[in-house]
Amino acid sequence: MGFDATQARNALNACDNNVERAAELLLTSSTPSSMPSPTPPSRHNHSHNPSVDNTNDDNLRRALEESRMTSQLTEDEMIQRAMEESLVATSNKKQVKSAASSRAGAAALARFAATEDKWGKKTTTATKNQKNKPKPAKKKTSPSHPPITTTATPTPTSYMQPKPPSRNLTIPTKMKDKTKEEQILRTVGRLTPHPRAVDTLLVALRSVRDHPENAKFRTINRDSPGFRSTLENVPGADDLFLAVNYQRRGELLVLDPGRVDVALLWMGISALEGARESEVYREKKRLLEFENAVRGVLASSSLSEVEERQRQGYLRKLSSEPVEGESGALLLHLHLTSDIIKRRRFDGDDQVVDVLHWIGSMGSLIPDKIRNGEWVLMDRNQSPPVKIPCDDEGLKKTLQWVGCWPSGRFELRPNVDEFSGEKEEGVAASNRGLGVTSAMV
Description:
It contains 19 helices and 10 strands. With 441 residues, the chain is of the alpha+beta class. The radius of gyration is 52 Å and the shape is elongated.
């Protein structure tokens, strides 16, 4: 490495025979003058020991060899070697617990050994190590240093347990477990808003009551067109048949001759007749008859010459439809029935009478019924819907004044007591439009 034996020996003596430090000192020193001077021999060592010199020479040669090998290693290899030596030293080092960590561990064990939950119930758990562990001697405490006390905290599971169900909670009885009378009354109550289903079931039960020997009346085919149009997906329809002792057999509902119970049939017929007297049934029945009448007016399969001429007359009075996206244009949705909806674009300054002309081009009878008050137009843009006045003054209102901007929703309904008392302030108070035009078209 460029150092003679004297320099190496001086470095070893200066580092108290530490080979690694001596090697570092030799490598970092640049000139022989920077080397420390040899330590003078002690006054007590009067004689020279040759075994010590030999040991120093061996250590010196070993240090020089390691220094030569280290100089040939790359930087990455030196870092990896240093990390390996550090890991070995760490693994060989015995861990020593401090008194503070021991006391903290004992306190943690004490908290888990005796915990008290929110209900005041105290539970204790002890392990074998805690049982066999000798009790530590009590230390005297001075007034300036009071003893540290720990309070038991409730475990999270002590207050996160689900509460037991209330004793007053009762599970409702299933429909099949109720009495026959209750089953019939409950199913008929669900059928009341469906007038067609009520009428069909009433006819079916009366036929079985009057002709119990006829198997045709005691068999219901659920795939037949009549069943699908009136009873399919109606809540309570199948349950009423089952309540009067019908049985399911595939897609059939069959009432065996031995299961015919006249009392149950009378009970079902009486419940259905009572449902027909309810206001809910009457209102739904009026609406159903109204929709059937509208469908009949709109039907164009057999138009007479008079009807065709009247429709053409309404169509000539109708204003031209604006182009989509044109300034001032609006889209009007007209609900004639629950499943028939027509759409057309109007100008914002078109009048309500133009809507009647449009409806008349589809059926000349509808504008006549609106004018005489039998049927009404409802504005569904407002909640609740309000009646649109169709007298001479109301027909002059512009669609934008009514509130149909940028779109509107009109609905055709029968003029029943529910709508005859509707307030018209909702239409009269709408002042967003262009006002009333001077004359009717």
